[in-house]
Each structure stands twice: as C-alpha cells, then as structure tokens.
Amino acid sequence: MTSEFRLDISQARPFALEVALDCVAGELLAIVGPSGCGKSTLLRMIAGLQHAASGEISLNGMTWFSGKTALSPRQRSIGYVPQHYGLFPHMTALDNVRAALHTLPRQEQINRAGEWLEKVQLASLARRKPSELSGGQQQRVALARALAAQPSILLLDEPFSALDSITREGLYLTLAELKPQLGIPMILVTHNLAEASLLADRLAVMDNGRILQHGTPAEVLQFPRNRRVAEFMGVRNILTGRVLSSASGQAVIALGEQTLSLPRALPLGSVQRWCLPQTALALQPSQQADSTLRGTVHNLIRLGDEWLVTVALPGTEDMLALQYPATEPLAIQQPVGIRLQSRHIHILED
C-alpha cells in the first residue's frame, strides 16, 4: 500500500490556521511562504510538538491527531531536521546519530549510525564533535540522525537557510540522491522559492495561516491563482484592465491608453487582473509598426549580460518588466515598442 500523509486542521487562536494537505511516499512537498505565515507552526503540529484546536492528521489511515487522539512525537516515528541542527554538543557525530537508535543493541546502533554517516558522506568525520564540524557537515549529521531510525515521514524545517550557497547545493544533491531510496513522505518548510522549486515535487504556497495554492512548481509559477501568489513567485508583470468587448471567444482589454486582444471570453465591463512571464515579451528599441504596445524606458538595471528594463505605458501606472541584451544601447525615457504573446496572459482571481 502506498504511504500517504493527510492533514486537515484549523484553529483561530493563538495563531489562525486553516490548512489541508497531503503527501505520498517518495514525494517531497515544499511549504513556501513569507516569515510568520505559519509554516513552522504547521510542521510542529505534524511532529506532535503542538496541537491544533480541531482537525485531523493521519498517515496510512492511522490517526495521529483528532478530537479524540493526540499521539506523541515518538509514537508518530518522525524524522525531524530543525533549522539549527539540534545536535548534542558533547557527543561525536556517530553518537549523535546513535541517539536516534537507543532502542537497538549497542553494536547495531554503531553499525547503522556508521552506515548513515557514509550515506551523507561523513564517515571519515564520525569521531568529531559538532564544534569541530562546519555548518554543512553538522546539517548532514542532523539529516543522518533523522533518517537512521527509519521514520514514517521526514520533516525539514528551513534546513539549509544558515548555509552558504555552495554548501547548500551539496546538500541539495545529497537529499536528491537519498529521496528515491527513502520511500516516505517528505515535507520541507522554506521561504526560499528557488530551493523549493529545485527540490520539490509539489509546492504549497502559504500566507496568513492558509494555503493559497498548491501544485507542481511549474504549475504554480506559470498559473498563479491570485496576485499574492504571483508576487511571491516573483512574477513582475501584474497588470489591471477593464474588458471593453468580448465575443466569439475573444476579449479586448484596456491597458491605459492601449488595448490588448486576449484569446478567451471574459465578462464585459469587468475589471481583470492578469499576469504574464517576461519570456512572453520582446523589447523593440523603437516603436515599430508590428509592436503590440508602445511605451518609454522608465528604469534600467544591468544584471550581467542583460538589462532589466522597466517600461512605462501611457495612461496607466502599471509597468512591464523584461530583459534585453546589455550590448544594445538603451536610455531612460527612450520610446520603445513591445511585442507581446497574448496567449501567455494568465487571468488572476480576485
């Protein structure tokens, strides 16, 4: 039977939460959102360190939490990797991993702890204490300890946030290599969108104690549900316009003094908020006859070999952001044209 984790909880105090999630074996679900949105609180509830006011948490049909049940963290068999490692400073790396295996005979503890240190590429440092290890090495020990006892689920609470980029990338590879072998649900809490997109099979975007959207990283990035999700996913081009006409599956929407045709029907007269990726835009250094839109360069920021160009549009405060080769000359207030692929326009919910 496929291992499946399910959660459906709610509470009003002390922190408002209303969350429904699921995660199957071998899948990594990333819960992403700004600091203070409730991510870590949710993870602590899954671990049994806190309890919601109401709802249910279960794994493989076994109830961990409900109105009548509240299993302890040990009863839930959780593998937990906290943000700041949580290692015992007086113990060696080997003994820190052994601490998760206290129910086994001593020699079996040593053997299994050694095997897991080898899997996370730390076998040669087994006798070192945490103070003698780098941050990345300490995090590998914490990961080995979390997995050594063969947990039913792995919880990762901002596990890479305190590490430099090179060390983080090494740990990403380690986790990616281990994931197919584990065969358990895995839940990662992070505010780092790039990290979540790289590691996760599915994303759940969280804000103010609620899940705003969930899906694959590509789905959430390409089709954000609303403005809040779009902003969190780093979508720069979020615009607003009124529908001027709509017939035969085509709509014309106002964009300041200009109009756009969209290949879809929309309610006549409605105000629509929409977004589109930078890849759907191409800048023309002059306003040409085939330009979809016209505007002026509002700002230029050089990023490596490209300009990040912000284009002001007449009759609206909305602007478009796109990239353009830095080898081509551009100037502030320069009139430009934009070719726009309207099929990539995505309408946002209110």
TrEMBL record:
Keywords: ATP-binding, Cell membrane, Membrane, Nucleotide-binding, Transport. GO terms for molecular function: ATP binding; ATP hydrolysis activity; transmembrane transporter activity. GO terms for biological process: quaternary ammonium group transport. One of its GO terms (cellular component) is ATP-binding cassette (ABC) transporter complex. It holds the Pfam family ABC_tran. PROSITE patterns: ABC_TRANSPORTER_1, ABC_TRANSPORTER_2. SUPFAM superfamilies: MOP-like (SSF50331), P-loop containing nucleoside triphosphate hydrolases (SSF52540). Gene3D superfamilies: P-loop containing nucleotide triphosphate hydrolases (3.40.50.300). Residues 1-233 form the ABC transporter domain. The keyword Phosphoprotein does not apply. This is Molybdate transport system ATP-binding protein. It comes from Methylobacillus rhizosphaerae. The lineage of its organism: Bacteria, Pseudomonadati, Pseudomonadota, Betaproteobacteria, Nitrosomonadales.
